[in-house]
TrEMBL record:
Domain Enoyl reductase (ER): 11-341
UniProt cross-references to CDD domains, sorted A to Z: CAD1
GO molecular function: oxidoreductase activity
Cofactor(s) of this protein: Zn(2+)
The protein's name in its UniProt record: NAD(P)-dependent alcohol dehydrogenase
Superkingdom to which the source organism belongs: Bacteria
Family: Belongs to the zinc-containing alcohol dehydrogenase family.
Protein species of origin: Metabacillus rhizosphaerae
Length: 346
């Protein structure tokens, strides 16, 4: 087994501490990855704080992982030592159900195996990317294109695919009006990707504080939702709305901004339930949908798309000792726009 240095948390109100974890010996199709960078996702915070349900502590979060292959199992065919690779929000699935066969492993009917806070096929708890090494079966690893640096590649493995997948599925492109709710870690990626797809992009944010950034990322318009007139002005405007906010908002108000047959897709995952007035849906045959990351094939497609269009997240590199501070800053919306841990500081 490989011993990995890590940062772990022992409870919802506990700080991160230095830890050592064991990574399993390589099975026939496993690869060992030396992690170089790991992004901090709001999901990490929800999970570490126990907001999405019971957690088996100690917990090592992290599902935005970029690194280099250092060893491979005897029957691995997809990767070799030295390859630049990434791991996202899941590390396995049943591989046999209809959804897995379609390449939608994130929706595995038996449940995918999350990168952390899950249980793998060996019955062991999964631990994530706030660590120096990880072992993953080759089918759940993606190749990072040469023109994407590893530090900016890390957030693409969650923030990138979480926004790319619904934009791709609901056909964002020329002639489509897309609104992005929130300009945070997810939102700024949604703006960049939707713009590259050719859509007309509007940011809906609480204030105009980040307007300059939003326009620089590719937004055509930027409105403050704290101004009630915004909802009157934009009523019936958008074909697609991507809600990236991980907090409770007035979904019915945002549904009113959709055109006929428009869709609002939730990718943010607040701990509290969201109420919906059904009349906001039936009046214009609108849809309220959800989307969760993407399959491995689509994640690789997303990376190639970002490489082609020179899309990268805006990041702030931190050391492993700064994780607690980074969590506080994310909760205070004090990050532009994704924290990435330099694992060499682990």
């Amino acid at each position: 087994m490989t011993t990995a240095k890590a940062r772990a948390v022992d409870g919802p109100d506990k700080p991160f501490r230095v830890a050592e974890i064991k990574r399993r010996d390589l099975d026939l199709h496993d690869i060992l990855i030396e992690i170089k960078y790991a992004g901090i996702c709001h999901s990490d915070i929800h999970t570490a704080h126990g907001e999405w349900g019971a957690v088996n502590y100690p917990l090592v979060p992290g599902h935005e992982i970029a690194g280099v292959v250092t060893d491979v199992g005897a029957e691995v065919t997809k990767y070799k030592v030295g390859d630049r690779v990434g791991v996202g929000c899941m590390v396995d699935s049943c591989g046999k159900c209809d959804n897995c066969i379609k390449g939608e492993e994130q929706y595995c009917l038996k449940g995918n195996v999350p990168t952390y806070a899950g249980v793998d096929k060996y019955g062991e708890p999964t631990q994530g990317g706030y660590s120096t090494h990880i072992v993953v079966t080759e089918d759940f690893v993606v190749r990072i294109p040469d023109n994407i640096e590893l530090d900016v590649a890390a957030p693409l493995l969650c923030a990138g695919i979480t926004t790319y997948s619904p934009l791709n599925h609901w056909g964002a492109g020329p002639g489509k009006k897309v609104a992005v709710v929130g300009l945070g870690g997810l939102g700024h990626m949604a703006v960049k990707i939707a713009h590259a797809m050719g859509a007309e992009v509007t940011v809906l944010s609480q204030t105009l504080n980040k307007k300059e950034d939003g326009l620089q990322f590719g937004a055509d318009n930027y409105y403050a939702t704290s101004d009630s007139e915004t909802f009157n002005k934009l009523a019936g405007t958008f074909d697609l709305i991507i809600n990236t906010v991980s907090a409770k908002i007035d979904i019915s108000a945002y549904l009113s901004l959709l055109t006929l047959d428009g869709t609002l897709v939730n990718v943010g995952a607040p701990a509290e339930p969201l109420a919906v007035n059904v009349f906001s849906l039936i009046g214009h045959r609108r849809s309220f949908a959800g989307s969760m990351i993407g399959g491995i094939r689509e994640t690789q497609e997303m990376l190639e798309f970002c490489a082609k269009h020179n899309i990268a997240p805006n990041i702030e590199i931190i050391s492993a000792d700064q994780i607690d501070e980074a969590y506080e800053r994310v909760l205070a919306s004090d990050v532009k726009y994704r924290f990435v841990i330099d694992i060499s500081t682990m």
